[in-house]
Amino acid sequence: MSTVTTNSQNLIDIIRERRSVRKYDPNYQMTREEIEEILSEAILAPSSSNLQPWRFMVIDNQEIKKELRSIAYNQEQVETCSAVIAVLGDKEMYKNADKVYQSAYEAGYMNESTMQQLINNINNVYPNASEEVRKNIASFDTGLVSMLIMLLAKAKGYDTVTMGGFDKQKFMEKFNVSDRYMPIVLIAIGKAAAPGHKTTRIPVKDVIEFI
Q1: Would the keyword Acetylation be found if you checked this record's keyword annotation (predicted)?
Q2: Contacts of residue 133, Cβ cutoff 8 Å, sequence gap at least 6
Q3: Model confidence pLDDT, tens digit, residues 80-103
Q4: Angle of helix 32-42 relative to helix 131-155, nearest 10 degrees?
Q5: In this structure, what are the phi and psi dihedrals at residue 151, rounded to the nearest 5 degrees?
Q6: What's phi and psi for 178, nearest 5 deg?
Q7: Confidence of residue 1 (pLDDT cuts 50, 70, 90)
Q8: How many CB atoms neighbour CB 182 within 10 A?
Q9: What pLDDT, in 10s, does the model give residues 33-57?
Q10: Displacement of CA 161 from its chain's centroid (Å)
């Protein structure tokens, strides 16, 4: 079997084996280095104009997780997982333009003229877009990075579950989140104590149309 075929099969297996796990071993603690490694790979996700409108807050302190549990409507996994990764969306992602494109220029991926043109284009378009448009962009892009976090975690032998059900306003107040950012999801990550429930999907023929 070729390397390409083997790698493809590994990815398919990871996708098929991923479950939303809500029971975690409370005695197992991932290292911060492991979590940082997962995030460093997840941020290779695509984003609008490569502005990367995501930020992460990793809550692994047990006492703080207990406090977070009440904000997350008493979901058990918040307290028993190794860590909760809060994924935030940056509504002012255009402010990342200089850093993003300067880095690409220094890496030799574009010339200075192209760099400046792209920065100018972003500064002419994004600040004039409505906040609702920018929120939609940030939500979409953080969804992409969140999916990669879950798949990477599974590939490394860990399990996850995403939680959109939490009091976002209380979260912002508790963790002093700037109005520039909006909480999107909480991702519990750790070592499963029980497998996630198997689910079914609507047949693809019912959700696809070739035109």
Answers
A1: no
A2: none
A3: 999 999 999 999 999 999 999 999
A4: 120
A5: -70, -40
A6: -65, 150
A7: very low
A8: 20
A9: 999 999 999 999 999 999 999 999 9
A10: 12
Percentage of the residues of the chain whose pLDDT score is greater than 90: 96
Domains annotated on the chain, with CATH: 19-195 (3.40.109.10)
Instruction: Spell out the residues 6+ positions from residue 87 whose beta carbon is closer than 8 angstroms to its own.
Output: 54, 55, 56, 142, 145, 146, 149, 183, 184, 185, 186, 187
Q: What is the dihedral of CA 140, 17, 186, 135, to 10 degrees?
A: 0
Q: CA nearest 45: which of 138, 116, 122?
A: 138
Task: Quote the CA–CA distance of 125 and 121 in Å, as a whole number.
Answer: 6
Strand order in the sheet with 83-90: 54-59, 83-90, 181-190, 159-163
Q: Which of 37, 52, 47, 130 is nearest to 85 (CA)?
A: 37
With tokens 């962009």, the residue in question is 137
Tell whether pTM > 0.70: yes
